[in-house]
Amino acid sequence: MNLLDWVSDIRPQRPINGIILVVELPNLIASNHSDRQALAVILRNRIREITEQFGARIPVYVVLNKSDLIEGFETFYGNLKQEERHQNLGFSFTLNTDAQVDNWTKEFADSYSSFVKEVEEVIFDKLATTISQEERESLYMYARQLGGMQNILLQFISDVLESDRFTTTPYVRGVYFSSIFQEGMPTDFYQAAISKQFDLPHVVPSYLPERAQRTFFTYNFFQNIIYPEAGLVSDNKKEVRRNKRKFILGTIGIIVCGVCILATWQNYFYQNKTASLKLIKLTDEFRQMTISQSMDPTGRNLLKPLNVLRQATYAYGDYEKHYLSLKILVYIRGKKSVKK
């Protein structure tokens, strides 16, 4: 969960581009039905945690790993060229609407059936040129196991990813096969199951001579499959709501500030207009005054014009009081400079 929290902090709107669900194919096929159901519940809960944490619909890519441990894999794919091994092997599904979100199950069933038929046709051609009895049996077992595991895979992946009414359904984008390291012994799971069911001697799997490790069907998986659909994941609903809330509050704040600024400007404009009209009136009054030219030692004849001039001087307010704080600040700064 700490990793998910960190990713949410780094990329809040679209934290991830998808989920790669890697399943070990041999272990899945070899396990019983109850074990597969328990694993499906664990994976389903984990995917639900991720979708709830990020508040988004996320693409899911299922990768069936260790496909080389299916008996006959090496015989069937061993002669592939490097360019062919670098191609991705699997099934990509159509991006459906919410009403058809589970259509991938039908696509998977149809695509897998077509895949098995193509494998059987290729095996039929290989059998015509294969003399070794061991290779013939290996190719036959590979086709048999591919066909037999279809229902198991469909049921398991459906248990993990099928939609319900209570959780955010992910986009199931595809199912792919992979083989990175050829380690372990290939197994014929049907022979093993029959031996266990009827208490028969266990069949020893075929031995493969040691050879250089090769990668099958995983080269450029991200570039070919994941990255082209990087924008498919939906936005984090929580983050979208948070951004929307911030936008609304910010807009309201800007509007309130704008109204306050406009009201303040209008108030001062009205005050300045009133003061200007008063100043003009006092100026006109002063111009129309007739000052006696006779000598008056008391200066009483100048009191009225001087009063008018004083009123005109303070038409815009008492400037001495307005700049008192500035005078004090300048005085303090000047006093400090003198001390230094």
UniProtKB/TrEMBL annotation:
Domain of life: Bacteria
UniProt cross-references to Pfam families, sorted A to Z: IcmF-related_N
UniProt keyword list: Membrane, Transmembrane, Transmembrane helix
Native organism: Rodentibacter pneumotropicus
Spans through the membrane: 247-265
Protein name: Uncharacterized protein conserved in bacteria
SUPFAM superfamilies (alphabetical): P-loop containing nucleoside triphosphate hydrolases
Stretches assigned to the Type VI secretion system component TssM1 N-terminal domain: 2-246
Coiled coil (UniProt feature): none
Species classification: Bacteria, Pseudomonadati, Pseudomonadota, Gammaproteobacteria, Pasteurellales
